[in-house]
Amino acid sequence: MMPENTVVPEVMAPEQPNTLRSADTPLGRARVARGWSQEKAVRALTLLAKSWNWQIAAEPSLKVYLSRWEHGLTRPGKTYQSLLCAIYRVTPEELGFSAPREPRESATAKSLRERIAELESMVTRLTGHLGMVEGVAL
Question: Which of 103-134 are b and which e, b meaning 16 or more Cβ less than 10 Å from the residue's Cβ?
Answer without folding.
Answer: eeeeeeeeeeeeeeeeeeeeeeeeeeeeeeee
